[in-house]
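Tokens help. Consider this.
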Amino acid sequence: MSLFDVLSKGFCSKKRQSNEILSQEEYKDKFLHGEDYIKRELYDEYISRRLSEEFGLKYNEKIKKWHSEWSDNRRLVVELCYPRGNHIYLRWGYNYDFIPNINSKNKLTWHRTESSVKIHIADAWYNHIEDEREQDCGYTKEEFYNPRKCTSFQYQIPTYTSDMEFALEYIKSVIDKNIPLIREWVNNVQTVDDAIGVLNQRIVTLHHIYVPYMCHIRAFLYAKNRDIEKAIYSIEQGYAEDDRQQVLKDKLNQLSNE
């Protein structure tokens, strides 16, 4: 029996229906006022079990991520993301073996080994589920820590609790809610063209600070498809007036001719 199972075993007597959404009062009671930190080691094993069952992923203890074996120049990667605040969430996507990073000294590096795993094109719950709020930034009094008003609380993992047994069982339900979203991503983004389509949509809708990186990724996807004209245009869009352009263009030309 795993540590997760031992700690959550006593929850059976107060287990809720898996499809029942906590009220604001219940959620605050369990996760806002708690002082016990929920270590990821307490639920990593459950994530590993579910990702292995559903997608054949293995847990990489060294880098604290889950990933598949290489297939068609890519591997599926799942990781925990830690934004500001008292919640973390699952993020997933593809690591491609033909997309390099470039540093300020024009050195190219790839992510191909067990110790170097990177998500090049990422996805998460917020690309699948509407989280409508009354204001652009922050929460109203009615929305704050209210899963029935803000969907985000249904798909994110709380980090503090007043009831560890309850929290561990609740986290299992959060993970299970993310599994169909990962499967939707895997089913919808199968080819290089699919990945380019995702990036094309994001480049025109997301904040401009993310555009250069996405143009970089898109350029190498175009080059992999032997569309060098679009690859060069994408790298020029992402690296305007940047002296790293030529190094990247040379690598794009090399990739498109392989």
Q: What stands out?
A: Confidence is low (pLDDT under 50) at residues 1-18. Residues 167 and 212 are 39 Å apart (CA to CA).
